[in-house]
Amino acid sequence: MSGSTQYYTRTAQVLHWLMAIIFIVAWLIGFYSGNFLSYEVDG
User: Fold this and answer.
1) Tell me: the pLDDT tens digits for 9-24?
2) Rounded CA separation 26/4 (Å)
């Protein structure tokens, strides 16, 4: 797979990382909201 990254354009790389960041952030939000759901109830 060496040199395969040269095939992708900078735009494709940015979109790839953006999707990865969005996925991780969405997972973290779901993770914390699941573990600390009672926090909102306590007000």
Assistant:
1) 999 999 999 999 999 9
2) 29
